[in-house]
Amino acid sequence: MAKSPEMEHPVKAFGWAARDTTGILSPFKFSRRATGEYDVQLKVLYCGICHSDLHNAKNDWGLTPYPVVPGHEISGVVTEVGNKVKKFKVGDKVGVGCVVESCRQCDQCNKDLENYCSKLVLTYAATYTDGTPTYGGYSDIMVVNEHFVLHWPENLPLGAGAPLLCAGITTYSPLRHYGLDKPGLHIGIVGLGGLGHVGVKFAKAFGSKVTVISTSINKKKEAIEKLGADAFLISRDEEEMRGAVGTFDGIIDTVSAVHSLSPLLSLLKPDGKLIVVGAPEKPLEVPIFPELITGRKMVAGSMIGGWKETQEMLDFAAKHNILPDVEIVSMDYVNTAMERLVKSDVKYRFVIDVGKTLKPQ
Amino acid sequence: MAGTENSQKSFGWAATDTSGLLFPFHFSRRENGSDDVTIKILYCGVCHSDLHSVKNEWGFTNYPIVPGHEIVGLVTKTGSDVKKFKVGDRVGVGVIVGSCKTCDICQQDLENYCPKVIFTYNSKDQDGTKTYGGYSDIIVVDQRFVLRIPDNLSSGACAPLLCAGITVYSPMKYYGMTEPGKHLGVAGLGGLGHVAVKFGKAFGLKVTVISTSPKKESEAINRLGADSFLVSSDPAQLKAAMGTMDFIIDTIAAVHPLAPLLGLLKMNGKLVTVGLPDKPLELPIFPLVLGRKLVGGSDIGGMKETQEMLDFCGKHNIIADIEMIRIDYINTAFERLAKSDVRYRFVIDVANTLASN
After folding, report:
1. H-helix segments, A111-257
2. Measured between CB atoms, which of B58, B281, B286 is closest to A286?
3. What InterPro entries does the database record attribute to this sequence (chain B) (predicted)?
């Protein structure tokens, strides 16, 4: 008979879990493995609330093994290291993102693209190599193989920096990989939420002209005055969209609702690239002819980034003072936060102050 | 009266309504200007776009229409500023005959993406007159849009390279499908597909043809040189090939599902569409995101690259597989083309069979 979550491993752990498709989280006792020779044990201080946490808690994608402890934007401090760990010591500030293991030997892993490994193990709602479920950062401690632990840059706040570990790398990686990080390019960011607002900051740091493309006029002032976007395009305004046709080198589309790609493709210059990082649950329509073909345009996907690139992104963010805009909340606010997240009522990421507000019951 | 705008008499076959049936048609070409070359047309390939156009399937045909943009012929006149060609040269004309020549895009030798591009037929020329294509006796073209045909390639079999050839060559270069040892899938084995197989082999790729017709397998492997053949309507074959291809050139013109093709790609794989379906296709986003895959388009190529492609064909002895026809067979050829009943391009023997009444 399978062991209960509390008895599975020798080290007691405590967090908040969703137990069914209502997605409502509540206190949950479970356990973590003993710190293995290559493992790092950390006390979780902060954990960002990613939209994926909400999708998983409610089983929107049909893949959730309940009970699920979400959270993959984790910052914390090292409390114990295995005897073969070289990169970290007790007291170090660290981060953990969306992946906690991969096969480490396939083509993708060998190119530092663990996120594209066919055997990757996600930080939560997955099965670890020992057959036990993975539980995420809405919890007091984590035990992670040192390969997947990130050094936390000294001047980066632990709370506001946590969302970089998913939202940050998810927008940083495609800007780099698809050559959209050169100064002077015109980059569009579709959707101004957790992903979008960080995407704006990275694109500005790369020296691009940045236009936010959104359905909500009331986001315009903040986009320009607070986030530093150069322009704002209302995607429902046909005249504005017509005026912007063929002016973008690249567009990062963070919208996860089903939407039409055709107007976005028409905004691109020839050879322009539309990169999708949101995850709509139904296929989208792409007009091959004329849009894609007559401009040699492309639609491509991207998913987080490898460990090496995630570290590079953190260091870049620290160097250029790029910080997500967050609303810090207590652990017991999490269900309300999820309700507000459904309505996009957050500027622009909730971060749970796990260290101070997660209390065993 | 349509067709009498210019001063050089010309004769060809044109369609006048959406039945797409072609009939003999008298019209005219402009006088040979200082930058122009006049060409006596020897051969013209029958491209599927010609069929789409004569039937107005894309909705922008301006009748009467003389199709044809895979033209090989001989120079009969050269303008005073023409240095690249002389009378008697064997030349080709492809899908475009003009562009603005001054914008950023033209300056990068990408005339095919110029917003003011002028197509070989059914377009408005710079003097405001309509352009007529290669199902005709002569054509007058700006020298920038005329190509040299390599000496060792036969004229008739070379004609389809001017559209089909560049249409697959350009994206193969642009999307990096030229690294020896990589695995290319070619979806659809028609005019475009069969040339893509030949280019793929010349680039040193492993090539798999992806088709719904099992009866094309023997030819694909024994005659065209493909390494393997995948029947895409066979779920077991599709499953076994999942995640094995670095790139896929999708030449299929009909509306078709992209999901199975995306599944065939490895991580970071590229699916490039060059067929022209008349409705949008469904694109599942999850496989793109989870595998960092891309779907890209491509549209013929610029003049510099088209010349490069022809020279590449000369070097590697690549020509199209054709069925030579008389001009008066063209309506039957179109019927057969609609059923994909051709291996793999019709070419009209214009010079020998187009007779003015």
Report:
1. 158-161, 167-177, 194-205, 220-225, 238-243
2. B281
3. ADH-like_C, ADH-like_N, ADH_Zn_CS, CAD-like, ER, GroES-like_sf, NAD(P)-bd_dom_sf
